[in-house]
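ok posting inputs for the 2-phosphoglycolic acid job
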Amino acid sequence: MEIVITERPEIVAADIIEKYAREGKTLGLATGSTPLKTYQELIRRHKEEGLSFAQCQAFLLDEYLGLPREHEQSYYRTIRREFTDSIDIEDSAVHSPDGTAADPVAAGNRYDEAIKAAGGIDMQLLGIGTDGHIGFNEPGSSLASRTRVKTLHPQTIRDNARFFNNDESQVPHHVLTQGLGTILEAGHLLLIATGAGKSEAVAALAEGPVAAVCPASVLQLHPHATVVLDPDAAAGLKHSEYYRFAVDNKLAGQGY
Ligand code: PGA
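and the output
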C-alpha cells in the first residue's frame, strides 16, 4: 500500500483518475463529501483541458435501499449532480445498485454480474467512514463479501444525517453495497481521507491488523492500493516519516 500525505489530496487523486480516463477505463466511483473536490478538479480538467470520459464506464460503490432514484439523496442522483452530469460520460454508462428492487438480494447479485460483464473495475475510488467502513461495509463485514444488503451502523446514520436535514430518522437503515471481495477485484484502489475525524480510522486501516473490525484494512491485501491523506487524516500514523520519505524517493518513472 502506498500512503501519500499531501495538502492537496484532490490533485493527486485527479492525476490518478485522469490516467484511467484517458485510457477509457472502467471507473469505480464513490459518493460522500470526501471525493467532491476531486470531482470538481476533474470537471475543471474536462472543461478547461479537454479531459474526456466519453469512452469510460462507471460503477458506484453503493446505494440506499428504498430511496427512489429521483430522491435528491439517492446515490444515483448524487453522482450525477456532483460529477457525471458535468462531464461527457454517457448517462447509460453510469451504473449503481438498484436500491428500489423488489428483490434486493437478486439486485446485489446482478450488480456483481454487471461489473464482471464490463470486464471489471480498473480503478475504484474509496472514502472511509469514521467507523472504518469502505462502501457501506460496516465493522464485521466478511472480507470476502459480494454486493449485498447491509444494515447501517448507528454511527454511519449519525454521520449521514447531515444529508437528510440533520434528521437521523430520515436516513435509510439499509443499503446495497459492493462487498469487500468485490472491491478487492478492482485493478487499483484509490482511497482518499481528509480531516482529523478520519485519523483513527486511517491508522487502523494502514497500521492495524487486517480485520473485519476495520473493513478498510482489507486494502492491505490488495497489490495496488494508494491511500491519499491530508495531514490531519494522517495525524494518527506511526510511520508517516517513512511514507513521506518513500514518496519523495520514488524510483524515476514510477507513478502511482
Ligand atoms: P464522507 O464519507 O466522504 O462523507 O466522509 C465517507 C464514507 O462514509 O465512506
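notes: Residues 9-22 form the longest helix (14 residues). The chain has one domain: 2-208+216-226.
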